[in-house]
# Entry
Amino acid sequence: MTNHLATIGILSIGDMGLGIAKLLIANNYRVVTNASDRSLDTNNRARSNHVELLPTDTALVAESDYILSVVPPRDASLIATRVQAAFKSLRTDSPLYFLDLNAVSPSTSQDIAARLSSCSGLRFLDGGIIGGPPRLSSPTDPSSCAYKPSIVVSGPHSLRDAPRSGLHLADVLNLKHIAQEIGPASGLKMCFAAMSKGFTAIAIQSFTTAERLGVLPELQAHLEQYNARAGDAAAKGLVGMPPKAYRWVAEMEEIAITMERFGGFRSRTARDGMETNKDSSVGAPGRGGDLFRGVSDVFRFVADDTELGTEKTESRKKGITAEDVAALCAEAMNGKHR
# Structure
């Protein structure tokens, strides 16, 4: 019987969750999940990659030393509530580290932390993942990891001080503890994603509009000649985006909240009901608070109105070139305006 360093629960086993699971398993951690409410594909994905399937949240919490929440932003609060309920039902004094690594605003993370504070043994870490899933060339060789994202966390509890392989786990995950308060880690994730995914939304609109005007080849040629780095980034972003567009709808809303509440960029709705206030901590009128709600609408269009919305990361069929993404978006847009 393998003597594992610790047991890590992951909710859930999507693209990022699976990448992290593979990294942990290669480093002698036992990884478990509850996929009873997930699709057959998710269950098969977990099973085929040596992630143990447990039947309930209570079983997951009872078996785990740490739980990583890696779900679409819309599900972050629900997962926290489920873990809290399972932890309370066990009536245990053993600590459980709960890392919320979802793309949510600092205020959402603070709300979750406040709700979990009634469970003294549940140690909450605000977190975010910057970058793509870990990549290993061998599932059993930890040295074969060619890439790890940056995992940033903040809060009063340090993973490195956790009694069950905490220091080793932090190193394996490439984890950085950046502050003692709840909020800075999720805020950093929001600020980073605003630039990377915000640029992808710009590329969607630019390439789609160029396609409808019949000038996409000329746009690409001018990008190659005059701004090659932007052209390459746009093409990469467009091709990688389709399977994730549905997740990014809520993430952009969380970024909008972050920019308004912590950046001071007040939304138009808030401005309409308030007189101009020169205190920058309240919010700057007319300074783009609605920007990322518009970005959210762009990804909602891709997810709901185009054929790209049905794409799965593990079985890509459409949108595998920037030209194809532009053509499918233009086709859907033409249908909307007939």
Q: What stands out?
A: The chain is about 50% helix and 15% strand.
